[in-house]
Amino acid sequence: MAAPVRSVLPVVLLGCGGVGRHLLRHILSCRPLHANQGVAIRVLGVADSSSLLVADDLHSNGFDDALLADLCAAKSAGSPLSSLLSRGQCQLFNNPEARRKVIDTASVLGKTTGLVLVDCSATYDTVGMLKDAVDRGCCVVLANKKPLTCAYEDFEKLVSNFRRIRFESTVGAGLPVIASVTRIIASGDPVSRIVGSLSGTLGYVMSELEDGKRFSEVVKTAKSLGYTEPDPRDDLSGMDVARKALILARLLGQRISMENINVESLYPSEFGPDAMSTKDFLESGLVQLDKSIEERVKAASLKGNVLRYVCKIESTGCQVGLEELPKNSALGRCYESAPLVIQGAGAGNDTTAAGVLADILDLQDLFHKTA
């Protein structure tokens, strides 16, 4: 028997790519569990890069589960959100009307029943909406790292009410990296150094290379498994790790920007997005990197080491790149002489979406049952 509903969390989702769709599926599959916990998640709107599908009545129960399931299927098949209009329950807003409608929704619900704006996109374009939502008393949950790595003033704005923002999945997918760092900071323990393999994607790639597999094959497999960003170069460039490092460094109080981080890319500039399409990179660029990567893996192996893509955050600066490490070494967050090691699944749409759902539920005490 379901418990009485104590908390209702109205949600608007920005981004219905791999992570966004997995989040919706998690919400649907966890309905019985949440009912037993007295929690209800109402999905009032879902946006992709061009439009927003929003419930007709913002004070209703939101989209029914059948519509959400159809929405996931439609987006997986490449269909537009407009294909769902015939189902009723909703209305469609195209950009730039979509942005205004998100803000209108935040205005209506932010200071009354409340709203959780969930960003599962991969763009900087959501920063303005997120800041407006904060001004209207809304909560924000992020899988998208980019809003937290913009200008420092934007970061300050977004975290100005720390109780109302959650971004665990921006750094470790489903791992409690952010929570661990913030808890230790809050307890008064100074964190002098963070060392980590912050990319589950590159962790997977480097581990697979130890078995003698070609770099190009491993990257393509990682992409097919949903471990990489839509363009794998966002991972291979080191920029995804650099964004995570910047978020952690800012949590430690460092007022730095991306330009302050030394980043080693795993491909040369002539293979970059400005010179080569994603399709061409996957089909002809990647294979040209196999030999150089293989030589570095073998060089490390001859010394009894493995190659890892590592992030180091210290008071003297931030850097990310390849390092040779003892095979049995542990990478994690270190302070004083006793390291706290956090390890586990750190990549994949499903894992990231599960972390986003946990972040949403972590806000439930801020919400109450509505009439």
Automatic annotation (TrEMBL):
The organism's place on the tree of life at top rank: Eukaryota
Matching Gene3D superfamilies: Dihydrodipicolinate Reductase, domain 2 (3.30.360.10), NAD(P)-binding Rossmann-like Domain (3.40.50.720)
Enzyme Commission number: 1.1.1.3
GO MF annotation terms: homoserine dehydrogenase activity
Residues annotated for NADPH binding in this entry: 145
All residue ranges annotated as the Homoserine dehydrogenase catalytic domain in the record: 176-361
Range of residues in the leader sequence: none
Binding site for L-homoserine: 229
Pfam families tied to this protein: Homoserine_dh (PF00742)
Annotated InterPro entries: Bifunc_Aspkin/hSer_DH, HDH_cat, HDH_CS, HDH_short, NAD(P)-bd_dom_sf
Protein's name in the database: Homoserine dehydrogenase
Pathway: Amino-acid biosynthesis; L-threonine biosynthesis; L-threonine from L-aspartate: step 3/5; Amino-acid biosynthesis; L-methionine biosynthesis via de novo pathway; L-homoserine from L-aspartate: step 3/3
PANTHER family: HOMOSERINE DEHYDROGENASE (PTHR43070:SF3), PTHR43070
GO biological process: one example: methionine biosynthetic process
Family, per entry: Belongs to the homoserine dehydrogenase family.
Catalytic activity: L-homoserine + NADP(+) = L-aspartate 4-semialdehyde + NADPH + H(+)
Lineage, highest ranks first: Eukaryota, Viridiplantae, Streptophyta, Embryophyta, Tracheophyta
UniProt keyword annotation of Protein biosynthesis present: no
Keywords: Amino-acid biosynthesis, Methionine biosynthesis, NADP, Oxidoreductase, Threonine biosynthesis
Claim: Oxidoreductase is one of the keywords in the record: yes
Active site: 244
Cofactor(s) it depends on: a metal cation
UniProt-annotated binding residues for NADP(+): 15-20
